[in-house]
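Lecture notes, unit on protein representations.

Consider one protein chain, 282 amino acids long.
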Amino acid sequence: MTDSKSLKSIDLASTTIMGTSINLIWSVIFTILVIIALSSIFGNFVLSFAIVGIGIIFATLVFSISECFGISHLYNFFIKKMKNVNLNIQDSDSITGISTISLGLIVGVISLVISIIIYPLIFLLLSFAPIVFGLLQALSLQGFSWIVFPASFVITPFFIIYAFIFAFILTTIGAFIFNKISPLIGGLKVSLTSEGNLTKVDSIDPKSAGIVTSIICLVFGLLYGLLFSFVSGNLPANLILIVELTIGGLIGGFIYGALSSVLYNFFAKKFNPVKIELEDSE
């Protein structure tokens, strides 16, 4: 039996604690990879790489607290004024569908608000332009211009507009892919229990989460590779890059989805799981 539920609100405390805990672990993994990559690019390890790593972890901690709390708060605020985001829940233990346009719109609006808030920080970052541009130039010269490419959108005055457009498009596409893939694998398996008027997400199945995120990241990797090749005007030379991004998205997406679910299940036992308010859809 499939029930359609509206996601009316997200509990701020449980979401902030869970999101920050997971992001902190990922930041440690990311920092290790960054240090290895920088050491490889520049030919040796220097102490400044470790300092950068510590900065990444600390920044992730601060940013995650603000991000998780802020996004949840903005969602709870805007969902009262916008069209409901509906979830299709089958047999009370798997999510088989989610609203596409309504989810894309609310994520786009949230991204718009956040971009307005953080844009002054971008100007602050640009005050260190010689360092930032020097690093970006070094990466480009080493053949990593596809990594530098997104920075061209961030440092333009149109960043706020791009934030809404990209958030809406990517979220809508991601939700569309989810709706196509999820029923084929029996849905995204979750364990849900009620607590008053809230629903606790006690656990997430790593396998189904990994499969869903791997397919979504595969498509995103392909789209990004094609976009970068189109903008750079050198599609034939970037065919290998497109294949690498596609395969990397498939493998990396599965690892990210599965491991994030494992971390979620671990922290859910240590702390409170994420709580959401679901209501029968009209």
